[in-house]
Design brief:
The protein has 440 residues and is an alpha+beta fold. It is 31% helix and 20% strand.
Length: 440
């Protein structure tokens, strides 16, 4: 019992004395409401300590607007609270500290280039590195368009725990995989490598990693279809607006005197990621409107003013959702359009034999047997001239042919009398000279 109490204290005391407690509610895109705010109590809102008016409860639903937001980056859920008015409306009590994780690689992390293997710290813009390009992940040579030095991060080995790596089936954060014995935890300056066109890059050991971290979507795993849509969209947005997005010095958190939907810029990113993927895949007006609202809100609240003007000028006439739907090549478009562009042929029937199918060989065997039996039945048998004259029996085993010179050698000489010759071979039968001389 004593050991159990100490174990519980060891588990819960760090949580209880966390430096920050947050109350999170629903994502309200129509009203001026916070998604999360400071909370001074280790219990749910009640009649004595009600939730502030700036935070509305949310519902655990698929739709983004009105949904109960997750705890912010660096926080984890302590309580899930029902609203007093409606049990379907809820709050989250989250504890922790605001995360400064942004991803990246240590300067000693080695990548594959045309000249061989090279540490990230020795790379420069316009260098050619090897990676994969396209939805089929074909090997390609990619040019580095930007190399950004980040602030110190906690790394496992030489790569951030939040960096995506390709497992062969999906994208998974480096920290969610099983570490090897030689991967030590360290704090080091990191670099963000931005290729021009490649979605994945080759490291020294031949494995593939992503130039993006999980901070944008706050997902430990991501399937290839979603990642390809995301990477293609980001590449085209950066090409249209600029490369300032990858320098975290250009972002700012909300000051306590300002009213913002999200307190930190990191917390504002996951809803944008979700709305971007939803808009790109289903093109619905609801999801695309959410993307425009959230992206413009992020630029207004968290992006430096010198860069927000670039955004506003770029998407003044055409919104971000229109750009994603009409100009950005996305995987969902090709998979949806493929059936409609397929030509139907009614005049030509194409059949592909499966030679390993045992039924095919059985059918072929039956067909060959039927052809053999038909050949035996159809081909005429040689006829014979049956006679019953004298002692000469009917020889039905001797074929009747029309070549006198050859057939004479097949018949015994004693049978060659004039009667038999004329009867069997007709009057035109010609004998050899020796027979004529003998008068036979």
């Amino acid at each position: 019992m004593k050991h159990t109490i100490f174990f519980l204290l060891f588990q819960f005391l760090p949580t209880y004395f966390a430096s920050e407690i947050r109350l999170c509610g629903g994502l309200d895109l129509k009203n001026d409401k916070h998604s999360c705010t400071s909370w001074s109590h280790y219990f749910c809102p009640n009649s004595t300590f009600p939730a502030p008016d700036t935070v509305a409860p949310g519902t655990e639903q698929v739709e983004l607007d009105g949904s109960l937001v997750h705890c912010e980056a660096g926080f984890h859920q302590l309580f899930l609270c029902d609203s007093r008015e409606d049990s379907t409306q809820r709050f989250r009590i989250c504890v922790g500290d605001f995360s400064k994780e942004v991803g990246g690689m240590d300067g000693r992390f080695t990548v594959k280039t045309l000249e061989g293997y090279r540490p990230v710290s020795m790379l420069k813009k316009s260098d050619s590195i090897l990676g994969t390009r396209g939805k089929n992940r074909e090997d390609a040579v990619c040019e580095i368009s930007e190399l950004v030095s980040q602030e110190p991060q906690i790394l496992t080995g030489n790569i951030s725990d939040s960096q995506y790596v390709w497992t062969g089936k999906e994208l998974r954060t480096h920290g969610s995989r099983e570490p090897t014995i030689d991967e030590l935890t360290q704090t080091s300056n990191t670099y963000a490598v931005l290729p021009s066109k490649c979605e994945l890059l080759y490291s020294e050991d031949g494995s593939l990693f992503s130039p993006y971290s999980s901070i944008f979507c706050d997902r430990k795993t991501m399937n290839w279809d979603d990642y390809y849509v995301l990477a293609t969209s980001i590449t085209n947005i950066v090409k249209k607006t600029g490369k300032f997005w990858f320098n975290i010095a250009n972002y700012r958190d909300c000051l306590s005197t300002r009213t913002c939907k999200f307190t930190t810029w990191r917390s504002a990113l996951p809803p944008i990621c979700k709305s971007l993927l939803d808009c790109a895949k289903d093109r619905s007006e609801l999801n695309c409107n959410n993307l425009d609202i959230l992206s413009n809100l992020f630029v207004k609240e968290h992006l430096d003013s010198s860069f927000s003007s670039i955004w506003n000028e770029t998407f003044s006439e055409k919104t971000l959702s229109m750009f994603i739907k009409n100009e950005v090549f996305i995987l969902s478009e090709t998979s949806t359009a493929a059936p409609s562009t397929k030509k139907k042929s009614s005049s030509k029937f194409k059949f592909k034999f499966q030679w390993q199918d045992p039924w095919l060989w059985s059918i072929l065997g039956v067909l060959i047997l039927l052809m053999f039996v038909g050949f035996i039945i159809v081909v005429p048998k040689p006829s014979c001239a049956c006679c019953n004259f004298g002692d000469d029996p009917c020889d039905c085993f001797t074929p009747r042919v029309s070549m006198p010179g050859y057939s004479r050698h097949l018949i015994d000489k004693k049978r060659y009398n004039d009667f038999d010759r004329n009867l069997i071979y007709g009057e035109t039968y010609q004998t050899l000279d020796s027979d004529s001389e003998n008068g036979s």
